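Technical annex, item 7. During the second reporting period the consortium partners agreed on a shared format for inverse folding records so that results from different sites could be compared directly. Each record opens with the tokenized structure and is followed by the designed sequence. A conforming record, contributed by the partner at site C, is shown below for reference.
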């Protein structure tokens, strides 16, 4: 028999706790907005690189809007993976910008896994209910997986501590403290590296989309103009010190 809820008690407690709850979220909003402003300044020309690669990605996807083409199971699976990546773009970018690094790295890890799954599906090696083999990715991406997993699983204390420790003004704090903060704070280097990784994975996503466009949709392939935009984005990332020339993607990868 279902328990009868005490609606009066619920409303009474809601009135009692609405102020501290609102304060908790207000602090997150205030410091998140401050962190975002700092991150936008720290990104530099990475913002231009992001604009170029997301523009190319969007242009390619828009050409498929309403297009009818034959598709097999692998095509359906790849379409769903592309969509999953795109749906996660905004929350991942917001988490990085607002200095919610543990959450951001969990989403970056998923982006890596989507790229690995795309390759697995293309090679007919996807494991049912199994984690993707990130070793299939290029070495520069695959070696990042462990650190992103540690952040996602909060398995290493120093990673969690870095994302929550307070190293700001200490004067006037009452009594002993462990210097833990409960609000986001920008780390310029971490923000830049995280954002650059996100942008680079979008480039790799475009490389996967290129293969599908060429194979499945006549006349919908990535254009020379779009290739130029991707190459300019790579140049920008190199100029920002976020990408080495040897890591630059090629259409054969």
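Designed sequence (site C submission):
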């Amino acid at each position: 028999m279902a328990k009868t809820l005490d609606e009066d008690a619920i409303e009474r407690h809601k009135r009692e706790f609405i102020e501290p709850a609102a304060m908790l979220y207000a602090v997150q909003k205030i410091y998140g907005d401050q962190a975002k402003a700092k991150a936008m300044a720290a990104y530099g020309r990475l913002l231009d690189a992001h604009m170029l690669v997301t523009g190319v990605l969007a242009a390619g996807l828009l050409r498929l809007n309403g297009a009818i083409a034959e598709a097999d199971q692998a095509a359906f699976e790849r379409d769903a993976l592309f969509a999953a990546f795109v749906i996660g773009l905004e929350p991942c970018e917001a988490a990085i910008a607002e200095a919610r690094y543990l959450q951001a790295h969990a989403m970056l890890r998923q982006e890596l896994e989507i790229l690995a799954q795309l390759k697995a599906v293309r090679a007919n090696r996807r494991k049912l209910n199994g984690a993707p083999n990130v070793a299939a990715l290029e070495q520069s991406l695959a070696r990042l997986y462990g650190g992103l997993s540690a952040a996602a699983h909060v398995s290493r204390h120093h990673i969690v501590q870095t994302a929550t420790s307070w190293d700001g003004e200490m004067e006037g704090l009452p009594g002993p403290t462990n210097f833990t903060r409960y609000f986001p704070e920008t780390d310029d280097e971490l923000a830049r590296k995280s954002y650059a990784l996100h942008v680079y994975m979008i480039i790799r996503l475009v490389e996967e989309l290129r293969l599908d466009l060429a194979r499945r949709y006549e006349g919908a392939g990535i254009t020379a103009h779009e290739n130029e935009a991707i190459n300019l984005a790579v140049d920008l990332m190199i100029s920002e010190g976020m990408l080495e020339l040897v890591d630059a993607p090629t259409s054969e990868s």
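The first helix runs from residue 7 to 43. DSSP finds ten helices and no strands in the chain. All partners now use this format for quarterly exchanges.
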